[in-house]
Design a protein that fits this description.
Blueprint lengths: L1 E6 L6 H7 L6 E5 L6 H7 L3 E4 L6 H9 L8 E4 L2 E6 L4 H12 L7 E5 L9 E2 L4 E2 L3 H10 L3 E6 L3 E5 L2 E7 L4 E5 L3
Parallel strand pairs: 1-2, 2-3, 5-6, 6-9, 9-11
Antiparallel strand pairs: 1-12, 4-5, 7-8, 10-11
Length: 182
């Protein structure tokens, strides 16, 4: 399975969206909603999901929820994997809800996407010399041990955190392709 994870904030036109379409991609995950109407995205992509940012309009969140593509505080089955998201204006609610939903799942099947980085896991802001991640999110990673954790951050990063493969898209990185074995 091949997933394309897109930095939604950088996607501002249909032309740009078309440039990221690839017939080999099985699903698309936007971290932060794209800056174009969701109906345009849905006419171009048939299998996509959104993790909203704290800056996204409530209308975007409601539309994504009503159309079934919102990942915030949700778990969706995709092939042999469970995909889940932490985003929106209340990430703590999303973490609490996902703890309930993913409490007894095996780590090899969980792909976790977040608008926020986890504290101490690819969250360093070099310009301020501070860590910017959520401690609750790191505790959640320790609890569920997902196979993959992908977030948005200030610097691009790829590493391992315990048993989890971690990837962080910088604010300037347009996308990341994630190849998963079935």
């Amino acid at each position: 399975m091949l997933l394309r994870v897109l930095n939604g904030a950088l996607l501002k036109s249909s032309k740009e969206l078309y440039s990221y379409v690839d017939k080999n991609i099985d699903a698309y995950v936007f971290i932060g909603a794209p800056k174009l109407p969701l109906y345009r995205v849905s006419t171009t992509l048939k299998n996509f999901f959104i993790v909203t940012s704290k800056y996204d309009d409530v209308y975007v969140t409601k539309t994504a929820r009503n159309t079934g593509v919102l990942l915030d505080a949700r778990v969706i089955s995709l092939s042999n994997y469970l995909i889940a998201g932490v985003g929106g204006i209340d990430p703590w609610y999303a973490i609490m809800r996902l703890r309930e939903l993913l409490g007894n799942q095996t780590r090899s099947k969980i792909l976790l996407f977040s608008y926020f980085p986890a504290y101490g896991v690819c969250d360093y802001l070099p310009e301020l010399s501070v860590k910017s991640g959520l401690a609750e999110l790191r505790n959640f990673l320790d609890h569920i041990k997902p196979y993959v954790f992908i977030s948005l951050g200030s610097v691009e990063c790829g590493t391992r955190y315990g048993e989890t493969n971690v990837y962080t898209l910088s604010r300037e990185t347009p996308f990341l392709d994630l190849k998963l074995g079935l």
